[in-house]
Design goal:
Elements lengths: L19 H7 L1 E6 L2 E2 L3 E3 L5 E2 L1 H13 L2 E6 L2 H10 L5 E2 L7 H4 L2 E3 L4 E10 L18 E5 L3 H10 L5 E5 L2 H10 L4 E5 H10 L4 E13 L2 E3 L4 H15 L1 H9 L4
Protein name: ABC transporter substrate-binding protein
Subcellular location: Cell envelope
Pfam families: SBP_bac_3
Length: 253
């Protein structure tokens, strides 16, 4: 899913590689990601990029025999502009595979199955959930701009009377949930688990999943980097490394 409207870092105007040969020639795979979405991509206490997606990207770069360069990009600029313009070689940021996006960019095979859910204040004081256990009319639901959560809200919730509040920054939406200014924020299911680890007693999921979705690695249309990424993904799964990454970043402990 995800996120903001502007670049968080000035990007080079020089086009990046669009093929395996070009990546190997320059010796660097440039990854675009919005590092605001733990446990998939975020900055650690030391300021370094880390997370499930980052480790997947590192594996792709390793198999290509090159270094990984991570460039932070707000989600609104990441998908699809950073990819289609050649500012980055690939994008990996919990990006949902959709038919509309697949017309513009090329996706790898799905690497993670997720779902959109309601994130509410712990204790769910407004008794909010899915399927509905309270009316939608008058409820304010938060979404992050240009995410599949926004699409779900517009399709499912707005016609039922909900007011949709759009945030450039996911953290701002969480702050409004915590303060009781909105009833719920739509986010990806693994985010709830991560929030409960990092901020115990503050947030929870309300009700069942709203919609299932698959994440994919993103490349310029028809790039042979797709095949390289799929090869890495297959290797990770066959070797058990993929499960180890799930256990490290996502599986609740």
């Amino acid at each position: 899913m995800k996120r903001a409207l502007v670049l968080l870092l000035s990007l080079s105007v020089v086009a990046q590689a669009t093929s395996v040969a070009e990546v190997k020639k320059k010796g660097v795979l440039v990854l675009g990601t919005d590092p605001t979405f733990a446990p998939f991509e975020f900055r650690g206490a030391d300021g370094q990029f880390q997370g499930f997606d980052i480790d997947i990207a590192r594996a792709v770069a390793k198999d290509l025999g090159v270094k990984l360069e991570v460039r932070p990009v707000g989600f609104g600029a990441l998908m699809p502009q950073s990819v289609t313009s050649g500012r980055v070689d690939m994008a990996l940021s919990a990006i949902t595979i959709t038919p509309e996006r697949a017309k513009i960019v090329s996706f790898s095979a799905p690497y993670y199955r997720s779902a959109q859910v309601f994130i509410v204040k712990s204790g769910n004081p407004q008794k909010f959930g899915w399927p509905w256990n309270s009316g939608m009319k008058g409820k304010v639901i938060g979404v992050q701009a240009n995410t599949t959560g926004q699409y779900v809200a517009n399709d499912l919730l707005k016609p039922r009377g909900a007011t949709i509040k759009v945030y450039d920054d996911f953290a701002a939406g969480l702050a409004d949930v915590r303060a009781g200014r909105i009833a719920a924020l739509i986010g990806d299911a693994p985010t709830v688990t991560d929030l409960q680890k990092r901020l115990p007693g503050q947030f929870q999921q309300a009700g069942s999943d709203l919609a299932a979705e698959d994440y994919g690695m993103v490349f310029r249309k028809n790039s042979d980097l797709v095949a390289a990424a799929n090869k890495t993904l297959a290797r990770l799964k066959a070797s058990g490394e993929y499960q180890n990454l799930l256990n490290k970043w996502i599986v609740q402990k």
